Amino acid sequence: MKDLSYSAVMGRKNEIIKDAMGVDYRRYEKEGIIFDYEAMMADCGYTLEDHIRIQQAVNVGNTPVFELHNLTALSRKLAPKGKGARIFLKDEASNPAGSFKERRAAASVYHAKKLGYKGVIAATSGNYGAAVASQAAMQGLKCIIVQECYDSHAVGQPEIIEKARKCEALGAEVLQLSVGPELFYQVLLLLEETGYFNASLYSAFGVSGIETLGWELGHQFMEKYGRHPDAVVCANAGGGNLTGTARGLIKAGCNAKIIGAAVDLSGLHMASDTAFNRKSFTTAHTGFGVPYATNPDHSDVPRSAARPLRYMDRFVTVKEGEVFYITEALATLEGMEKGPAGNTSLTAAFALAQQMDEDEIIVAQETEYTGAGKGINPQLSFARQNGIELLFGDPDEEVAGRNIVFPADPGLLKARDLDLNELRRKFIRRAVKGLDRALSEAELRFLAEETRSDVDFVKSALQ
Amino acid sequence: MAAKGDWVRIHRVLLSAQERTANLPEDTKKVPFEMWVKGHLLMDGEIGDEVVVRTVSGREEHGTLIEVNPQFDVNFGRFVPEILEMDVRLRRALFGKEADEA
Hints:
A: Rossmann fold, 7-stranded mixed beta sheet, B: alpha+beta
């Protein structure tokens, strides 16, 4: 009889993951703190061309790109003369289950089936659940989605409950949990019990699947407008969206600036039972975006394929009230109703466009589906029920968990830069934590690659 | 009364507050780690009984029976007037006075 206690199960993590993915992550561990990221990405066995073929076979990808004429016009009214880039949107909501996450799910499910697994398991409260459920349905595998969903009063985030409904509608079993990082313990138990494949958000199969999004963007713009976009904004939480998109853009020969965007939830502890229902965004927020950028390897795999600091040029935050406001602007000025969390990058793009020239192009690279529980009205209604004050004013005065401030005037909407060098320094210091020796030249170069900096920067961060 | 074969929802405490990981905020430390899941009942039972179900993936799970024919109660929420106010302000910002004309 296996020991099912928390510590015993977590202690078996590497063995369980190896059995549940067919990947021995120890292969990529090299000298000292070095691990071979590109070898891990290449070893997943799927090239960009493979992903395109797999995704086309299951109706994923090739989503349309829209120019948002009215949002561009509004942003130009607020920008200095000659400024106000053209704003575009990639409509990822038109994927079969309603988000870009299917690019991430397709190869994982395909791979699980190829290796003979009977089912897949994914830990997610987000759109990834619906994506895995949809792919499992199409490819004929069983599927279990594990969600962090309820506080200790069994009150659930409406957005997450809607996703549970969608997963069940697509044939998945949904296991709902209360707040806490022990979710990964429960996932490990389920992997052991079922022998299913771990369709981790952070696997090389998943993250390399998103490369098609960046690749499509590069090619769509060349075909339609004869040029590449100048900036691409990616919502950044776990880091896979940004990592995969950036890698795809590079493969398409596009050197657009890569800008991460996250909803500012600073001050709210992500594992707090009482704070859980005081936030209005359950993903694409700083509570994931910052810790996963500076410490990518604390997920359900030993080494995450999502490493956003390797690719990011800027990382900006926007406020909850601003994202709801742009969600409404997209509906009322552009005629498109989409889920709020999926508009995080568009919100940042609206502000960032005003810093760019009129002839430049900025792209928000996703949208997501909307529905009961997962939309501007249900989410704001839930916030008000939880005592969150809703008001018009200056979004800089928004305090996550206390109020939601809609811009009184669209000119008040901002993209606020996080200090990328500070995040890089945090990454570097965490990577050497507990190490009481000097780093080798190779290790210094590795950390420079991991943070898209140079050896001198790494050395200064370590002082 | 629920009968064998009924579609139900069960609840179970997976880790008591004492069994949880050490690295938690104070409020979360005080509460157990809980689970909810649905399945077909493998025996007759009443609300509050300890039961076993078979989930759609074919697994057996045990826990307390809390709901028979469980429904989703997510909806579009109560009316939020600020959303209409956003529309008005956005149209005015883009179209000027014309936005207010019939």
